[in-house]
């Protein structure tokens, strides 16, 4: 019998083992081809006019997607080899060398990979259209885009998939070369009876794991996080949470289970024997995989929740940065003429189009100043340095339609959305010294506003608003060249924004923004973000859910003899399933629960970025969707156990 004949016979015999690994390969090819198609398709890039944003976002996401698929496929490959360890041992027992067995497995792997590649490309071509429509919907594009077959996407997928096959083939070769015959026959029993640490050491390590997670949560949301060492602080938090999670799985949970068993004097019943005992025996083997799944779940949930929150709050956050529908300034290179002349032309165009509006001239002062205060954050670097200031009169701003508070005489309110997350209530009051014609005007800054007061300056200049009396005093002393005119337009009917924005495009200055165009650009950017994170989240969800499902299928096969014995003793399927459901509640529920808690604290630590929106709803929706997918895998696993138990007799 030749090696090829042996390969064909082996593949026929092991169909029940192959379909798990084959599914993993097909899933990887399909996802990567879809993602690559949307990245490289010229029609998508050209007609959405988002080439720069899409290129950078998709390139970064491609690396992450490859990493997810690499973990998924290699894990499925390891499980595939473990389920066939006895067969591999028998091959060697009958006289095949390790080299021959390695070649047999590598040929099988290449054949499976080729078949999965063909099926995956076909599936990707069928499903790509659906993802394209979703992407166009998210970025707000209402036109028609015809998706065509992409040679670049095909080539990129082929190269990436070839790398995956090479990696898995090398792992097969390496494992066969290093394995001993006795290990192959006992591979499915590894780590079932690990040596338990001493009770006192277990208690200390168990408490340490929970403490490290708690310290990481506290530090991430404390005032000590936002310092000049922010990057190192983030690494410290990540290390604390990951190590704490591993210790929790490796020691803490096992220690708690031991306490439960001791309290019951070892009489844990049938349900406990089918849930508590297997989990304790396999905790060492499961700790690493559960830690990885929990950590990546938290990261995926945090990214998905953050992206959906950004998309959900696009309109509100845009209005914070661009408070006026249109604002005409003399900043930048554009049409010749003063702001009043350009405003008159724009008003005439709006009148011709039948669009109702209110028009308000605004004068601000461009000055320099300095801030001082005991609680000023170091990241601002304001202490001892001068700052460019734009000073506004609240009377004119209110006349333009802004709902802002009017400070007392001699006081000011600061408006700068770019630094609002640093200026908490504890920072104020802050002293401000404004340079006016060779002298200094002292102001007391008492609070920070909820929005910018002039469109286009967010994060560029710091804006101060004063009441009429204080503004008039400073304006009178300020040189004429510091006076800057603006004209604000706000429409009566916001439904006319799209039409008016098209008209305003002819008058738009370099640094001046109108609300509608800024909103559409932000919506497109956030739409791409949520599509990429959602796609990666889907890939990770299916990957991790499948890994847990595959692992439980393997354990069900190993425990089949126990189920046969229980059935022979008279136990019904329903009685046995009570313990199985408890086990699956832990296997799927604990990593999901810890991932949810990790992600909640991660999102909370960056919630300061949302200045005007409550993100509870979008984050909750993302978490519920994530939990439902995990629930589906748990139900599938329980169904597989039920079939295994029913077939035990």
TrEMBL record:
GO terms for cellular component: plasma membrane. The keyword Plastid does not apply. It is a multi-pass membrane protein. Its main location: membrane. Keywords: Cell membrane, Membrane, Transmembrane, Transmembrane helix, Transport. It is found in: Cell membrane. The chain crosses the membrane at residues 18-38, 58-76, 110-132, 152-174, 200-220, 226-249, 290-311, 528-550, 585-603, 615-641. InterPro entries: ABC-4_Integral_Memb_Prot, ABC3_permease_C, ABC_permease_BceB-typ. It comes from the Bacteria. The keyword Lipoprotein does not apply. GO terms for biological process: transmembrane transport. Residues 62-180, 535-640 form the ABC3 transporter permease C-terminal domain. Belongs to the ABC-4 integral membrane protein family. This is Bacitracin transport system permease protein.
